[in-house]
Specification:
Helix content: 25-40%
Largest sheet: 4 strands, parallel
Low-confidence stretches: 1-33, 129-145
Number of helices: 10
Mean pLDDT: 83
Number of strands: 8
Structural class: alpha/beta
Oligomer: single chain
Length: about 325
């Protein structure tokens, strides 16, 4: 499965060469370890939503590191030899295959046995091709084409992934299986509550359509009966065509759109220009690929509730 534009990757030859130089501690090299400090399970997460799951489920029994630093666009991540070495020393890895090509290749080379691939724990579909609510390109990834990886923005799918991560951590550290299960049950309950908040909060709305710079919200839109119209498609850095901009003008007028959303990790210039042309407001809808000082919340739940507030305002809920 391939998602996003093809970006520079860490080559297999580079990994092998680094191993030969002793720069990496992959299981294919010598001396790989799986324990963190204090006997904790060492878990490597690929980016924030995976880190959040690992920490929430693992609790005090895990030592979690995140390959993607706050403020870094996850899709563009390139790994240093040190990071790749640390990945190979993990007792477990939590990632989403297809989102970060460099991570995909490093995970395949790591030799780590306990790997939680979020993309395999729920169904993936195709989004990002909406035009006036039609030709969504929906369909499971097996049908071909690019799959939308943004499953964490749907609380129901995120809960499914949480259960899968729980199973992998329990396999990696059987002694704490009961605690992992308890933490997972608590997390799933909170995600069920978040789903209920979105269902209730988005009822009785004046419009079903919202405009974003980045087509990250396809699963969320589908869950709650909304239509996402994205300026840039699945790639947050791509430039929209003149035809696409013209189409968005028509959609905004037809569906009484009030707001153009942009995100904290991407350039908002296009969104602000479109909003200016249409005399619309702008606001932030956060795809939650990382938490920074600019985030409208300190964690996943805080940002998701901020997103709900922004959507309610933009869609004219009562």
């Amino acid at each position: 499965m391939t998602v996003m534009n093809i970006r520079r990757r860490i080559s297999t030859a580079a990994l092998a060469g680094a191993c030969g130089l002793g720069l990496l501690a992959l299981s294919g090299c010598s001396g790989a370890t799986t324990g963190g400090s204090g006997g904790k399970l060492r878990v490597t997460a690929s980016f924030y939503p995976m880190e959040f799951l690992a920490r929430q489920i693992g609790g005090d029994h895990v030592e979690v590191s995140n390959l993607t630093k706050p403020g870094v666009e996850p899709h563009d991540l390139e790994l240093s030899p040190k990071q790749t070495g640390q990945l190979g020393e993990s007792g477990a890895i939590v990632y989403l295959k297809g989102l970060q090509p460099a991570v995909d290749e490093a995970v395949a080379q790591s030799g780590v046995k306990n790997i939680a691939d979020a993309a395999a724990m729920t169904s993936l579909e195709k989004h990002g091709n909406e035009v006036d609510g039609h030709d969504h390109g929906h369909g499971h990834a097996a049908a071909g084409g690019d799959a939308d990886p943004h499953i964490w923005l749907d609380p129901v799918k995120y809960a499914e992934v949480a259960k899968g991560v729980n199973a992998v951590l329990a396999k990696a550290d059987p002694a704490h299986k009961a605690d992992f299960q308890k933490n997972t049950d608590a997390l799933v309950k909170k995600l069920d509550g978040l789903n209920a908040d979105f269902e209730k909060g988005l009822k009785d709305r004046a419009s079903d359509t919202f405009l974003t710079t980045h087509a990250a919200f396809g699963y969320l839109a589908e869950r709650y009966g909304l239509t996402e119209e994205a300026i840039n498609g699945l790639d947050p850095e791509s430039e929209p065509s003149a035809h696409r901009i013209k189409t968005l003008h028509t959609v905004a007028e037809k569906h009484h759109v009030s707001t153009v959303f942009f995100e904290t990790l991407a350039n908002p210039a296009t969104a602000k220009a479109l909003a200016g042309d249409l005399h619309l407001k702008t606001d932030v809808l956060d795809p939650l690929e990382g938490i920074t000082d600019a985030s409208r919340g300190k964690d996943y739940f805080g940002v998701m509730h901020a997103n709900l507030t922004a959507l309610r305002k933009a869609l004219g809920t009562k």
